[in-house]
Amino acid sequence: QVQLVESGGGVVQPGGSLRLSCVASEITFSRYTMTWYRQAPGKEREWVASISSGGTTYYADSMKGRFTISRDNSKNTVYLQMNSLKPEDTAVYYCNARFVGPDYWGQGTQVTVSS
After folding, report:
1. Which of 39, 80, 96, 105 could join 35 in a cystine, given CB atoms 3.0 to 4.6 angstroms apart?
2. Residue 20 confidence (pLDDT) above 90
3. How many angstroms separate the CA atoms of 89 and 63, rounded?
4. How far is CA 16 from its chain centroid?
5. DSSP 44-100
6. pLDDT band at residue 101, thresholds of 50, 70 and 90?
7. Count of alpha carbons within 13 Å of 17, Cβ hemisphere only?
8. Cα of 84 vs its chain's centroid, Å
């Protein structure tokens, strides 16, 4: 059974940093494009960043320069390094795996940016 398990969320002050991780199992991880999404209360799910199987990265404009997506295929893990966090970054962050066939989703990890 395919599983994506996110971790690393928490409460951080504005200007702080967090690193999220998403570990995948039962997929050939290296073939998948991995993506982070987020969903704030009362808002639609929002694309954050993606990394292709070849390592090319893509970012939403509001995350450029603050967030970095990376992957370690040897660990079946995708990361999201988040710096200079703002209160508006508060959301549940989800990881997504896409290749062919259905997408796979994790259960999400809560990030709260508050003083």
Report:
1. 96
2. yes
3. 9
4. 17
5. --EEEEEE-TT--EEE-GGGTTTEEEEEEGGGTEEEEEE-S--GGG-EEEEEEEESS
6. confident
7. 9
8. 16
Q: What is the pLDDT of residues 70-85, one digit of tens each?
A: 999 999 999 999 999 9
Q: Tell whether the torsion through CA atoms of 83, 19, 110 and 38 is positive or negative.
A: positive
> Beta strand 109-113 with 3-7: parallel, antiparallel or unpaired?
unpaired
Q: Which two tokens stand for residue 60?
A: 């939403």
Contact criterion met (CB below 8 Å) for 114 and 87: yes
Q: Cα–chain-centroid distance for residue 17? A: 14
Residue 12 in tokens: 């951080």
Distances in whole angstroms, Cα of residue 33 to Cα of each of 30, 38, 41, 64, 111: 8, 17, 26, 19, 23
As a whole number of angstroms, the distance between CA 70 and CA 89 comes to: 19
- The structure tokens 């990030």 sit at 111
pLDDT, average across residues 16-32: 96
